[in-house]
UniProtKB/TrEMBL annotation:
UniProt-listed InterPro entries: DNA_brk_join_enz, Integrase-like_cat_sf, Integrase_catalytic, Tyrosine_recombinase_XerCD
PROSITE patterns: TYR_RECOMBINASE
Species: Gluconacetobacter entanii
Domain called Tyr recombinase: residue spans: 8-188
Lineage of source species: Bacteria, Pseudomonadati, Pseudomonadota, Alphaproteobacteria, Acetobacterales
Protein name, as recorded: Site-specific integrase
UniProt xrefs under PANTHER family: INTEGRASE_RECOMBINASE PROTEIN MJ0367-RELATED, PHAGE INTEGRASE-RELATED
Entry-linked Pfam families: Phage_integrase
Length: 192
């Protein structure tokens, strides 16, 4: 896995582009907005977000609990801390508290009962509204942006590995290869 495609184009959104994406998401329909926020703030895969159910939104703990879908076996979960604003939006739009009071605690209530293609289209509509294009303007670009932002913020690689659900630390280590403004921020710390 690399952060650049064969043509040398960046496959992740910069901090400024991610912020532009989130601002554009504020204007999107409510369900699309919460999906975009979830992808940007958790670093999850699109398929993992679409599989999220109300019982896996831990409002008290401040985390989203994702079934890690690439481990090739069921029952592997990871908790990812997310901002309170995302949890509030999920509760407002998807009725998390209400669903969790019902029998089954909302385990049958998928937040986005959409196909993968419908989710992909919703994210791309927001990318277009934000004026973003190219390889980085995708759900995967948001995942990579999360990894780069986490490493650039000084989050230990093993924690980023856990949050992203990587089996190997070497996969997570690519985010230490950040460039542009992110690399400048890292270098500034060294310069004093």
């Amino acid at each position: 896995m690399q952060l650049f495609d064969r043509d040398g184009s960046r496959k992740y959104l910069t901090v400024a582009e991610r912020a532009r994406f989130l601002r554009a998401a504020e204007q999107a329909p409510r369900e699309a907005r919460t999906l975009c926020m979830t992808l940007a703030w958790s670093g999850c895969r699109l398929s993992e977000a679409l599989a999220l159910t109300a019982d896996r939104v831990d409002l008290a703990g401040g985390v989203l609990v994702f079934a890690t879908l690439k481990k090739r076996q069921d029952g592997i979960y990871r908790a990812v801390p997310v901002p309170p604003s995302l949890l509030e939006a999920l509760d407002l739009v998807h009725g998390i508290r209400e669903a969790q009071r019902r029998r089954g605690r909302g385990s049958a209530a998928r937040l986005w009962p959409w196909s993968r293609m419908t989710g992909w289209r919703a994210v791309h509509a927001v990318m277009d509204a934000a004026g973003l294009s190219g390889p980085a303007a995708s759900p995967k670009g948001l995942r990579h942006a999360f990894g780069v932002a986490a490493v650039s913020s000084g989050i230990p690689l093993n924690m980023v590995q856990k949050w992203l659900g990587h089996a190997q630390l070497s996969t997570t280590a690519i985010y230490a290869d950040a460039v542009g403004a992110e690399e400048q921020d890292i270098a500034r710390k060294m310069w004093g």
